[in-house]
Amino acid sequence: MAIPGAALIKTLLSPSFWHFTLKKWEAEFHTNRGAASKLRGSKDVFFDPSVTFRSPENIVLGSRVWINEGCKIWASPNARIVVGDHTLLGPNIVVIANNHGTEYGKGFIRDQPMVEKDIKIGPDCWLGAGAVILAGVEIGEGAVVAAGAVVTKNVPPYSIVGGVPAKVISSRNSNPERLYSIST
Ligand SMILES: CC(C)(COP(=O)(O)OP(=O)(O)OC[C@H]1O[C@@H](n2cnc3c(N)ncnc32)[C@H](O)[C@@H]1OP(=O)(O)O)[C@@H](O)C(=O)NCCC(=O)NCCS
Which of the listed residues 20, 47, 71, 169 should we mutate to test ligand 1's pocket, taking the one with most ligand atoms within 8 A of CB? Predict the structure, then answer.
């Protein structure tokens, strides 16, 4: 017979429970407090204290988004980053919504206007360790980005992309007609 409260006691004795609870507390009350307070739409979001945000007023995180150590989520004054519900970001991912201007003969790169473009990452995606997501990219619902990929173009829903630049390496759904949307 199950002992009442046994599950609770097991949880309280679990090192991983305390590890993530303390990290969450640290994220909410210490590091990133200023930036985090400006993030939009965030509900039940976890991000490690080492995560940095730029232009946080232009970052929208869906519910249950999880962002691991060392990620940099850098929106821009004129470009938003939107991350859908339930999406997971592995460690050391860079999502960056701008480029320096690189026109030859138009002065120093650092003096040229920034080129800013929105980034949309769908719901239920998983971005592997060290991936880089560049300005203007849309990652479809349910897609997986392999570790180390540099994503320069849109990613189809439910595909798995990898490499530099990222290409489709496989698909999570062998019957694309049966795509569904978890957000509806
Ligand atoms: C993408 C991933 C999920 C595996 O996906 P998969 O569909 O099972 O892929 P497979 O292992 O069957 O490999 C399929 C092909 O993609 C290649 N591939 C796998 N991972 C790759 C990567 N990171 N970059 C480039 N190519 C990769 C494989 O070499 C293989 O190529 P081949 O067909 O020429 O042999 C996995 O490789 C990965 O990158 N995981 C991320 C781990 C991580 O970041 N964890 C953090 C947890 S939050």
Answer: 169
Q: Is residue 119 part of a domain?
A: yes
Residues in CB range of 118: below 8 A, 6 or more apart: 79, 80, 81, 82, 97, 136
Give pLDDT < 70 ranges for the chain.
1-4, 24-34, 36, 41-42, 175-184
Domain assignment present for residue 11? The answer is no
Taking the complete model, does pTM exceed 0.70, yes or no?
yes
* Total domains present in the chain: 1
Distances (CA, A) of 95 to 17, 23, 135, 156: 28, 22, 8, 18
User: Whole domain around residue 158: which residue ranges?
Assistant: 38-178
> 140 CA distance to ligand 1 centroid (A)?
18
